[in-house]
Amino acid sequence: FQDIISGIFILIDQSVHVGDIIELEGKVGRVEEINLRTTRAVTVDNKVLVIPNHLYLTNSLFNWTENGIETREGVNVGVAYGSDVKLVEKLLLKAANENESILKDPQPKVLFMNFGDSSLEFRIAFTIKNSFEVRFVQSDVRFEIDRLFRENNIKIPFPQRDIHIIDKNN
Questions:
Q1: With 0-12 CB in 10 A as exposed, 13-18 as middle and 19+ as buried, what is 163?
Q2: Can you give the three-state secondary structure of 108-154, one letter per residue?
Q3: For a Cys-Cys bond, which of 3, 70, 108, 148 suits 96, CB 3.0-4.6 Å?
Q4: pTM for the complete prediction?
């Protein structure tokens, strides 16, 4: 009964439409069908999600495409302390601008996020044409960042810790 009432709300409210890309409880899918009791969505892996409609009322729903299919995304990367931050910015922009799925307007933007424990933390933010393919675009950008950093001797550090062993016998 709760699912049917929720289904009526969804159909009247029109907050979700067929074709929308939604995220609910960490699962992302493109809405294929909205019924009174359930909503069917297909994931990027072509798996079918059957979502009981009451979950729309009891959970936070992200509609990635309510404002259109373009979404602002990004990739985070840390570089070693002492790296040329202007070169890092240039290489991150190059990695984004050479990807055909990333829009030129608005332009990609590099953010210097923080001075981390083991690295200088950056984010390359960009807008993509099709938010359903976000993980593929992010992966392509990461591959390109890795290639460009290697060519330009920019190091991506890993966390390092010093361990001190105290010998109580001495």
A1: exposed
A2: CEEEEEEECCCCEEEEEEEEECCHHHHHHHHHHHHHHHHHHHHHCCC
A3: 108
A4: 0.72
Buried b (16+ CB within 10 A) or exposed e, 76-103: ebbbeeebeeeebbebbbebbeebebbb
Q: Are 128 and 102 in contact (CB under 8 A)?
A: yes
Cβ burial of 68 (10 Å; 0-12, 13-18, 19+) is exposed
Q: Tens of pLDDT along 105-156?
A: 999 999 999 999 899 999 999 999 888 788 999 999 999 999 999 999 999 9
Token pair for residue 6? Answer: 């929720």
Per residue in 28-84, pLDDT (tens digit) is 889 999 888 888 999 888 899 898 888 877 788 888 777 677 888 999 999 999 999
Integer Cα distance of 44 and 133 in angstroms: 7
Beta bridge partners of 38: 52
3-state secondary structure of 29: strand
Which residue is it, tokens 């190059």?
94
Residue 133 pLDDT: 85
Residue 63 C-beta-side C-alpha neighbours within 13 Å: 14
- How much is the mean pLDDT over the chain? 88
